[in-house]
Structures are given as structure tokens and as C-alpha cells.
Amino acid sequence: MKHWIQAARLRTLPLSVSGIMVGSLYALANPTNNILTPTQVFSWTIFGFAMLTTLGLQILSNFANDYGDGIKGTDNEDRIGPKRAIQSGVITPVAMKRAMVITAMLTFISAVLLIYVSFHDKHLWYSLFFLLLGGLAIASAIRYTVGNSAYGYKGFGDVFVFVFFGLVSTLGVNFLYSKQFDWQLVLPAAAIGLLSVGVLNLNNMRDEVSDTKAGKNTLVVKMGGAKAKIYHYCLIIIAMVLVLIFAIIYNGIGFRIDQYAFLVAYFPLLSHLKTVYNCPEPRALDPQLKKLAISTFLLSLILSMVLIF
């Protein structure tokens, strides 16, 4: 059990639910989908199944990464981070593949239940669209490193993370509540997506040498470490600006300090950027993965609290 918990990489889970929190509590803070007859659109049932589905996708992605990199030999003695399950031999490839199948099935069931409690027997086209989206999310989580055409080995991992852990997570879950699109939410959704990409980019910066040797052509390998740092600064800074713009638009005229309490989370983000700037070698970036993931979760949590209070 200890090895399976390690393979699930619990430290990545708070990051994966950041978009769900913001999209859900935005729905709670804006309890109307009809101007003439205001109604509460938030539902704890939808929130629960959305959390389960997102956590399932993240764990599936972690299992798939362990399996894909393990059987390809990408996880080897050159890898800087903690040893993976297949790499260390504590879990066999066959057992990991079985776990991926089980996790994918459970995640799909959770997604189907999420869609049902959101739309019931109404909005058939919405249901079919989200069912297709759920299938794509599961397939994308697996195909990141698994298979001969794994897109993570071609530098497209950043796109997947931005779309599914930013836009789909935040905007998608909010739509499940409200049945309508809110353009304001694009700003924090994109910000969470960019910060999530930042975590992936940091991971790839750390593994640049080993990935290059293994033929894993991540975006960092393609652009080089120096440009990857500049790319990283842009990801974090643009995300911070987007959240600030969202707060200004959302709060409108007037200023209350509590409405901008999320700015507290900017301090660890700025400290992180300073550390990355002064980093002498990729190996020293490993502790920053956890720091950036927790900072993103903290920002999302405080922003969510600001929305409802």
C-alpha cells in the first residue's frame, strides 16, 4: 500500500483540484442562472463528483507517467527526482498497467455520475459533449507518456496541462452548475492553467539532461534551459496578472482590502521566481516543484474564499 500511495504522488493532488475549487465557489458566489428568477446553482453532489473525477484523472496520469517512462527507460540513474515505482522495482509494469485500467474505469464511472447529477435527463447535447470531454481527458492522461506516439515525448504536454487542468477544470465545472458560460472566469481559469504548466515546466527543467539522453523531447529540451527559464517567468507572471485583472473586474468600483487577500499567495510565487533565477543547476530545482504546486493551491483557495465572503 505504501508503494501505491507513493506512485499516486499525493503532492500533485492539491494542484489538480485548484480549478475545481475556483469554478465551484464562483458558482456558489453567483447563485443565479436567470436574472428574473434567481436560483442557487451550486450543488455539493456535483462538487463531490467533480473532485473525485479530477483526483482520478491526476492519479491515472501519475500511474501512466510512471509506467510510460519506466518501460521506455526514461526513468534511470540519471533522473534527479525521487525514484518512480517501476524504476525502483517495487511495482511491476504488469501491476501498474492493471492499476491504470482500474483507475481509468473508476474515473470514467465518476465522470458519468457527475454528468448525470448535473444534467439528469435534460440537455442531451451537453451530456454528450461532457462525456466526450471526459473520454478525451482519460485518453490524454494515459497517452502523455504511454505508447509510441506519446505526446509528452514530442513537447505537447504543456498544452494538455493548460487545457485540462486550467480551462476545462475551472470553466467546465462551473458550466455543470450554471449551464452557461461566464467570460470573467476565463481569467482565473487561464491563470490556474499557466501555473499548472509552470509545475510541469519546472519538472522538465529539472530533468532536461536525462530527458535529452532518453529521447524525451519536452518543450524544455527543444528550447534549451536558458529559454525555458524565461518561459517559466512568463507563465508565473502572466498568471499573477490575470488573477489581479479578474479581481478588479469582479469587484468593480470601490476597494476593500479583504477582496485582495489572495495577494498573500504572490509572495511565495515571487520568492519561487527569485530562486529559479538564481538556480545554479537543474538538480536544485526539485524542491521548487512542491513549493509552486502548494503556492498555486494556496492562491486558488484564498481566491475561492474571497469569492464567497
Automatic annotation (TrEMBL):
InterPro entries: MenA, UbiA_prenyltransferase, UbiA_sf, UBIAD1. It is a multi-pass membrane protein. It is found in: Cell membrane; Membrane. Pathway: Quinol/quinone metabolism; menaquinone biosynthesis; menaquinol from 1,4-dihydroxy-2-naphthoate: step 1/2. Its EC number is 2.5.1.74. It catalyses: an all-trans-polyprenyl diphosphate + 1,4-dihydroxy-2-naphthoate + H(+) = a 2-demethylmenaquinol + CO2 + diphosphate. Its main location: membrane. CDD domains: PT_UbiA_UBIAD1 (cd13962). Keywords: Cell membrane, Membrane, Menaquinone biosynthesis, Transferase, Transmembrane, Transmembrane helix. GO terms for cellular component: plasma membrane. One of its GO terms (biological process) is menaquinone biosynthetic process. The keyword Transmembrane applies. It comes from the Bacteria. One of its GO terms (molecular function) is 1,4-dihydroxy-2-naphthoate polyprenyltransferase activity. The chain crosses the membrane at residues 12-29, 41-60, 99-119, 125-144, 156-177, 183-203, 230-253, 289-308. Belongs to the MenA family. Type 1 subfamily. Conversion of 1,4-dihydroxy-2-naphthoate (DHNA) to demethylmenaquinone (DMK). This is 1,4-dihydroxy-2-naphthoate octaprenyltransferase. It comes from Flavobacterium swingsii. The gene is menA.
